[in-house]
């Protein structure tokens, strides 16, 4: 079916024939195509029956190669093309869908990539944060190590301080012991000085009239001297507005006084308006459990008296008959004063010999002496019975058996009458009240002098033993800071 070579004329014609045949077949196809058939059928509608004639003008073409003429082939090719269009369209739409799917996938991938990027970024951030935390941790560890070092240093310092304080405490104890020894020496020297003075006076008296000799001094009890008193002094606390103070180092004592009880107007505080009671135990039994001032009227007494009731110590019920604590009251007084009593009920005072006598007559009483040294240590001496004889007997002291931790410095005064500056009832050739500057149940003269001169600081220097001393606790040259004498019915 292929014609080769030849001239231009026959070639043209053969092409024309082929094309005409092709058109004919197409006209067959037109009848199937609704659009084409409509075009062709238009003249039929007008009622004319015409035959179609086609004229084709084909430009002359120079054929150089072989010409293939295949009628069937051209027709087939056209048909495949249409199907192909449909299939290509399908394919295209398929591919479009796939493209869209792929686009979606790509989008998803893009998102994933973004997410990956974000995750990488976060990871980088986390890494940097972890690094930062690690650095902080290292820093903390180093700091803690430093702290522990500081702690160790502090511990060492504390240990050193403790060692130092222990060393100081031990040194302090040594000093205390030395002070104690020195205080003992001073006491002994005072005794020696007293003895020498006495000898001098004796020598002097051979030539002239001499002043009265002092009583024998109480020997020192060195082991009982309260220690750690940092000064050696003989200052006397001044009495309020009265002024019996003497100059430092002076050996003249306070002037005697004959004044009686100074309490006229009891303070409102701690004062019970009820009563009077027979004694402080009765006041306590009447429901007055507070320590303070109460009106006491012993049996047979002419008038009530004021007294301080100690209701807290040792079950209470104690009637205080004597109190020393600040040197505010002069105890260098005459007989009448000691008989009726003097001082301030809420401070330093003496209840009065008559009152004490009357109290002792109404029952069996015991006596407690309470002493406080300048270190604040308190000791006591208790006697299981106590009373005084009447004034006609010089208010003689009657004591029972001692017990306590202060030492017994009062039994040697048992059975002695009371002596004041103006009434000498003691066993000494002179007047003990003159030398001890107080009133007491002096013997010749005494182991205790609780109505003596109130010195500050404890150990004192004086020509005579005139401080508030309790020989068995501190010796004769140690003056107590505070003293109380109180009585209570025996249970
Ligand atoms: Ca005498």
Automatic annotation (TrEMBL):
Composition bias, Basic and acidic residues: 237-250
NCBIfam families: GGGWT_bact
Family matches, as CDD domains: FReD (cd00087)
Residue ranges of domain Fibrinogen C-terminal in the record: 271-491
Keyword Protein biosynthesis: no
Gene behind the chain: LOC115406022
Signal peptide (residue range): 1-29
Gene Ontology terms describing biological process: blood coagulation
Short name of any one Pfam family annotated for the protein: Fibrinogen_C
Protein name, as recorded: Angiopoietin-related protein 1-like
Residues covered by region (Disordered): 235-274
InterPro entries: FIB_ANG-like (IPR037579), Fibrinogen-like_C (IPR036056), Fibrinogen_a/b/g_C_1 (IPR014716), Fibrinogen_a/b/g_C_dom (IPR002181), Fibrinogen_CS (IPR020837)
GO cellular component annotations of the record: extracellular region
Subcellular location(s) per record: Secreted
Keyword field: Coiled coil, Disulfide bond, Glycoprotein, Secreted, Signal
The keyword Iron belongs to this UniProt entry's keyword annotation: no
SUPFAM superfamilies, per database record: Fibrinogen C-terminal domain-like
């Amino acid at each position: 079916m292929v014609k080769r070579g030849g001239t231009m004329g026959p070639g043209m014609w053969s092409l024309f024939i082929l094309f005409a045949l092709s058109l004919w077949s197409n006209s067959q196809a037109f009848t199937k195509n609704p659009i084409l058939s409509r075009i062709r059928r238009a003249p039929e509608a007008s009622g004319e029956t015409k035959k179609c004639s086609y004229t084709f003008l084909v430009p002359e073409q120079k054929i150089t190669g072989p010409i293939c003429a295949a009628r069937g082939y051209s027709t087939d090719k056209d048909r495949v093309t249409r199907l192909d269009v449909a299939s290509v369209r399908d394919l295209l739409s398929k591919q479009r869908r796939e493209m869209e799917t792929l686009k979606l996938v790509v989008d998803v991938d893009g998102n994933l990539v973004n997410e990956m990027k974000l995750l990488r970024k976060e990871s980088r951030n986390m890494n940097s944060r972890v690094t930062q935390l690690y650095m902080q941790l290292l820093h903390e560890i180093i700091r803690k190590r430093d702290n522990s070092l500081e702690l160790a240093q502090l511990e060492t310092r504390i240990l050193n301080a403790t060692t130092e304080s222990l060393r100081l405490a031990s040194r302090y104890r040594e000093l205390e012991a030395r002070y104690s020894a020195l205080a003992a020496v001073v006491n002994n020297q005072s005794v020696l000085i007293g003895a020498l003075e006495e000898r001098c006076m004796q020598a002097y008296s051979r030539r002239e009239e001499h002043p009265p000799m002092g009583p024998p001094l109480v020997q020192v009890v060195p082991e009982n001297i309260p220690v750690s008193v940092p000064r050696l002094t003989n200052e006397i606390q001044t009495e309020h507005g009265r002024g019996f103070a003497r100059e430092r180092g002076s050996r003249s004592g306070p002037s005697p006084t004959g004044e009686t009880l100074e309490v006229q107007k009891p303070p409102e505080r701690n004062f019970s308006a009820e009563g009077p009671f027979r004694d402080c135990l009765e006041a306590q039994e009447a429901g007055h459990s507070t320590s303070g001032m109460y009106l006491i009227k012993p049996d047979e007494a002419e008038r009530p008296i004021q007294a301080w009731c100690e209701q807290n110590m040792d079950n209470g019920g104690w009637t205080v008959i004597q109190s020393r604590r600040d040197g505010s009251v002069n105890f260098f007084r005459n007989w009448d004063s000691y008989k009726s009593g003097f001082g301030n009920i809420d401070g330093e005072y003496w209840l009065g010999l008559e009152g004490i006598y009357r109290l002792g007559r109404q029952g069996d009483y015991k006596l407690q002496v309470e002493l406080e040294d300048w270190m604040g240590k308190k000791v006591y001496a208790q006697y299981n019975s106590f009373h005084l004889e009447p004034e006609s007997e010089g208010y003689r002291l009657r004591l029972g058996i001692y017990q306590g931790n202060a030492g017994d410095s009062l039994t040697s005064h048992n059975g002695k009458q009371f002596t004041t500056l103006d009434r000498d009832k003691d066993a000494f050739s002179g007047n003990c009240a003159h030398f001890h500057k107080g009133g007491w149940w002096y013997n010749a003269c005494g182991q205790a002098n609780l109505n003596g001169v109130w010195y500050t600081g404890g150990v004192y220097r004086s020509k005579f033993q005139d401080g508030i001393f309790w020989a068995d606790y501190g010796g004769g040259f140690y003056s107590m800071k505070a003293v109380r004498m109180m009585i209570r019915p025996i249970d």
